[in-house]
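Run log, item B.
One chain of 147 residues. Sequence copied directly from the ordering sheet:
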Amino acid sequence: MKKITAIGIIKEGKLAINSRKVFADDLTKAPNGKVKITVEKYYRKASILQFGYLYGVILPLSWIALNDAGYEFTNVDQVDQFWKSMFATKEILNRETGEVMTLPLSKSEFKTIDEMVYSDKIREYVAEYLNTVIPDPDINYKQKRNV
């Protein structure tokens, strides 16, 4: 059976489903049988603007700070891999051997909140250990785009 999903809003204990007609149509096409229904907090995927701030501000400034501290990174991808190894990993367990492997997360799967946490951790580390302040994102970016 194909997974059927819907986005909705819970307000005062009532669920309002966006695109209810499409959801209802999908349900009518589903085969009969037992199903599992789960409600969880919905987060959007990280935005282009978030990644623009990450690749345009955070990674270049942290690259400079890291190299000033003695590292020898030669490109932004290396810096990104370094930060992912520190702040964006998941552990995978081998049930047979008990070995735990650490793998980097894919930023393409980051939700908005994941990207915010990742960026904040880099900024905090750079400020605390590399004595470099990475500026906050510009909250007036929309006004500047129209100029």
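Observations after the first pass:
- The chain is about 45% helix and 10% strand.
- The longest strand covers residues 89-93.
Flagged for discussion on Thursday.
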